[in-house]
Write a structure and sequence with these properties.
two-stranded antiparallel ribbon; 11 helices; 12% strand; globular
């Protein structure tokens, strides 16, 4: 039996975690998930109790159908992806190698759920969880920004913060945080990558999204792995390289 009183989460000792895990349902709007996220992955920080919860989240996902297991998988993925891990803990992908493998397989099954065709947001979150379980750095945390249609990154030349937008307001770079207003400052069109030139993780994610019928996700990925022009100094840079540089642990 695990002694949860010897483990910690964001608010102190973790005696309450087993009860929260036992009580939560598959429903995304179950308030229990909010409580678990707040304790186990608070603003991206994870704790000893977060690691200890992984086998339970794995078992929960295994017991639930592919259509119902999204919440434990996404929480486990966020824990695995976090770059703010407990000091002194063994590498998560070593200490929980079996759980990571099982969670990856369970996520693969969930990604094949037909209902995701109408839910690209959950699809992206599950895809991010999958690569987190596989140990892909940076993108396990940052891929989910696809759902916001925006990345904020510094220009590698002048360090000015640029908003890289590829959503309902268009596809452009700007230094104006209020770019959704018609009076926003200079906007420079993004330069999407040619899908035929994508390599490595970019090619894998793009091809996977197309194969899964997530055409809009695939389209957004061409902007993330394409180029942008700094709206301050006009330097052209790789969006993905700047994202990786900023958040590489």
């Amino acid at each position: 039996m695990k002694d949860w009183s010897q483990l910690h989460h964001a608010y102190g000792t973790a005696e309450d975690i087993p009860g929260l895990l036992d009580a939560v349902s598959p429903a995304a709007n179950d308030s229990g998930w909010t409580e678990l996220w707040s304790r186990l992955c608070h603003q991206g920080t994870v704790y000893s109790a977060s690691h200890a919860a992984l086998p339970i989240l794995r078992d929960m996902a295994h017991q639930w159908s592919p259509a119902d297991r999204q919440m434990p998988l996404v929480l486990a993925g966020a824990i695995a992806a976090s770059t703010d891990q407990p000091y002194g803990e063994q590498d998560l992908h070593v200490a929980y190698a079996s759980e990571m493998s099982d969670l990856a397989q369970l996520t693969e099954e969930a990604l094949q759920e037909p209902s995701l065709g109408d839910d690209p947001g959950t699809y992206v979150s599950l895809l991010a969880a999958l690569i987190s379980f596989e140990g892909v750095e940076v993108w396990g945390e940052q891929l989910d920004e696809l759902n916001d249609g925006e990345y904020e990154v510094p220009c590698p030349s002048c360090s000015t913060e640029n908003f890289i937008a590829f959503g309902e307001y268009g596809c452009f770079s700007t230094t104006d945080s209020m770019y959704m207003n018609e009076t926003a400052a200079k906007k420079l069109p993004l330069q999407p990558a040619d899908a035929s030139t994508l390599e490595g993780l970019a090619q894998r994610l793009h091809s996977r999204a197309l194969a899964d019928g997530q055409n809009d996700v695939a389209h957004k990925l061409t902007y993330v792995f394409g180029k942008a022009q700094c709206a301050e100094c006009d330097e052209v840079f790789s969006v993905a390289e700047v994202i990786t540089t900023r958040w590489d642990a």
